[in-house]
Amino acid sequence: MTRQGRRVVAATAAAALLAGCATAGQDTAIGAGVGGLLGAGVGALAGGGKGALIGAGVGVLAGGSVGLYLDKQRRDLEKVAEVKRTENGLVVNMAGDILFDPGSAILRPAAIDQLSRIGDILAKYSDDRVQVLGFTDSVGAASFNEELSLRRAGAVKAVLLSRGVQERQILVLGLGETQPIGDNRTAEGRARNRRVEIHVDVPKAT
After folding, report:
1. How far apart are CA 70 and CA 65, in angstroms?
2. Is the pLDDT of residue 106 over 70?
3. What is the distance, to the nearest Å, from the Cα of residue 64 to the centroid of all Cα atoms in its chain?
4. N or C end of the chain: smaller count of CB under 10 Å?
5. What is the pLDDT of residue 81?
6. Predicted local confidence at residue 30, as pLDDT
7. Separation CA 100–CA 97 (nearest Å)
8. Are residues 18 and 98 in the same domain?
9. pLDDT reading at 13 higher than 90
10. Averaged pLDDT score across all residues of the chain
11. 36: which residues sit within 8 A by CB, 6+ positions away?
């Protein structure tokens, strides 16, 4: 690839990134910029400078479409829950003290209402891959906590299924006390650790 070709690729990727920022939000801009760079690299291997330029354009379209998908879904979910953007997609974090009584896997009525609204949103995105991860604090035996976290994740899954999310989309895991986000020596930290996370993977653009 010539120096001129590399300049064309860099300019194309930069322009795509700026265009994404201006038109479709941060997630779209990131998707378009990264997609453009990856597409340019593939195109360069296939056809030198011209191939890089074509590859950059294809990558921008693919990455941008994923970004748009993320933008829309994130906006929908933020209306009903706390949502975090990750490298792979979205994470909906739900505190355990809102969902369950201590030591229980029976959802509280308010939690069922919130999860029903989340399920209604996820059901509109039938290409999503959804992981429901249950966690506990460190009180009690590790084996009990693992089983409790799995039952809690299963209870969340049941609500999502009842709202139209498909069985094939959902994977349930009980991780017990293995991934604390708070200090288990304090009541506040233990409350943070008792949680369920809904991870949404963005499907690859075709």
Report:
1. 9
2. yes
3. 16
4. C
5. 92
6. 46
7. 6
8. no
9. no
10. 78
11. 12, 13, 16, 17, 56, 57, 59, 60, 63
Q: What span, in angstroms and rounded, lies between the C-alpha atoms of 110 and 101?
A: 12
Please identify, among 30, 53, 74, the residue that sits at the C-terminal boundary of a domain: 74
10 shares its domain with 70: yes
State the average pLDDT over residues 97-108: 87
Torsion of CA 86, 205, 78, 120, to 10 degrees: -130
Residue 176 has pLDDT above 60, yes or no: yes
Identity of residue 87 = E
Computed from CA positions of residues 113, 78, 164, 131, in that sequence, does the dihedral angle turn out positive or negative?
Answer: negative
Question: Which of 44, 74, 104 is the last residue in one of the domains?
Answer: 74
Amino acid at 164: G
For the ranges 51-60, 120-129, 145-154, the lowest mean pLDDT is seen at 51-60
Q: Please report, for the domain that includes residue 124, its CATH number.
A: 3.30.1330.60
Identify the CA nearest to 162 among candidates 200, 107, 91: 107
Q: How many domains does the chain have?
A: 2
Range of the domain at 154: 82-201
Same domain? For 96 and 66 the reply is: no
Q: Which two tokens stand for residue 107?
A: 């959802």
